[in-house]
Specification:
5 strands; elongated; about 5% strand; mainly alpha
Length: about 375
């Protein structure tokens, strides 16, 4: 790694002789402020704040908002994991018939969802801090890939980033050594609670600094992206995780990594903040449009139920509520969740299929047949195909 200037930090030489290597010691974020943002970045920052505010406002007045937000957490989990190379799809995560055959990719996404839910719950009782991040990290790596990489424990050894098989001497990036890491992490925790920094700029800088510190042996990327939402919540910009910031980061993955690197190599914090604000603004716009589309679909579905399920409208509305929480179902699941007979559950599913609200996911499957709320999933699937 070659760096220009000293604004962003410096290289530290470690170990003597042939074992010598250099690690990166980042500057304190307090020392790089104030930033010199151009007029375009300032305008994008204002747009970003406005769109997040609009989305936050929408979520407070929309019926069934909590069900939709649960889906948003799952989508963010999927998108963030896909940035790391996870190959599963949105349907894979939601399919109840696939639980016995879950892959490590699906495990990663499910762990992320649980980690995000834990973070939101714990933030009601404690501030955003390293202790909380350790708790969330433990949940993030609870099972599947990375479970053997000290979940919840700040690393006590050197790590590095690069292609498979590379050594620390030829790695693309070597994060701070353990001593520098501990100091940088303590500085980051203090910075998170500064009240005189714009919340979006703070989220951008906190994400960069966390990724650069790389305090865990695995899972830093996913936890660092979750930290974007948690930082905005900590500053009161969001009350709930109502959008998926990884959407645009995934679509612009090459530029995302390039911008992080340019900060480390050239101190280009302004370029990173500009890119970050653009991504957040676009992610917020997409999430708001999706939320509006989901609300309109809910109203349309209710209207179809009222017009076509005269005798079974109550069960029909109950099934709709179930589908908004679990858009892929089996007959047995409908029976159990609605407390009806198997015959009634099968009849309801057939009626929803005739209204084009449900479709069978795999006509070749003889057992454990599943049915999906296709119009709902079509909205949520946007941008969720594996890279």
């Amino acid at each position: 790694m070659r760096i220009t200037g000293t604004r962003q930090g410096a290289l530290t030489t470690n170990l003597p002789g042939i074992a010598e290597y250099q690690s990166f010691r980042p500057s304190r974020l307090d020392d790089v402020l104030p930033l010199s943002l151009d007029s375009q970045t300032t305008a994008t920052l204002a747009l970003c704040a406005r769109r997040i505010g609009e989305m936050e406002g929408m979520s407070r007045f929309i019926p069934n908002a909590d069900m939709y937000l649960t889906m948003y957490v799952r989508k963010e989990a999927l998108l963030s994991s896909q940035i790391e190379g996870t190959q599963c799809t949105f349907d894979d995560v939601l399919d109840p018939a696939a639980k016995d055959a879950w892959s490590k990719d699906v495990d990663e996404v499910v762990n992320y969802v649980r980690a995000a839910e834990l973070a939101v719950k714990e933030m009601d009782e404690m501030p955003l801090c390293v202790r909380l991040l350790r708790m969330v990290h433990r949940e993030l790596l609870a099972a599947g890939r990375g479970a053997e990489r000290q979940p919840g424990e700040i690393r006590d050894s050197q790590n590095w980033i690069g292609p498979a098989g590379c050594t620390i001497q030829n790695a693309a990036f070597v994060p701070p050594n353990v001593d520098d890491m501990r100091e940088a992490l303590a500085d980051l925790e203090r910075f998170i609670h500064r009240e005189d920094v714009d919340p979006v700029i703070k989220a951008a800088l906190v994400h960069y600094q966390f990724e650069t510190i790389h305090p865990f042996l695995d899972g830093n990327g996913r936890l660092g992206r979750l930290l974007v939402t948690l930082s905005l919540m900590n500053d009161g910009v969001l009350t709930r995780p109502i959008f998926y910031p990884s959407y645009q980061l995934k679509l612009n993955r090459t530029e995302y990594y390039r911008r992080l690197t340019l900060v480390r190599e050239q101190g280009d914090y302004e370029g990173w903040v500009k890119f970050f604000c653009t991504c957040l603004a676009e992610s917020a716009r997409d999430a708001a449009q999706s939320l509006q589309a989901l609300v309109e679909l809910h109203a349309h579905s209710e209207e179809l139920i009222e017009k076509n399920l005269v005798r079974g409208a109550a069960n029909g509305h109950a099934l709709l509520r179930l589908l908004e929480a679990h858009p892929i179902v089996t007959t047995a699941m409908v029976r159990d969740e609605l407390g009806v007979s198997r015959t009634t559950a099968a009849s309801l599913i057939d009626e929803f299929r005739s209204l084009d609200l449900l479709r069978e996911t795999d006509a070749q499957r003889k057992r454990y047949r599943t049915f999906c709320y296709e119009p709902y999933l079509e909205i949520l699937r946007t941008g969720s195909d594996p890279l």
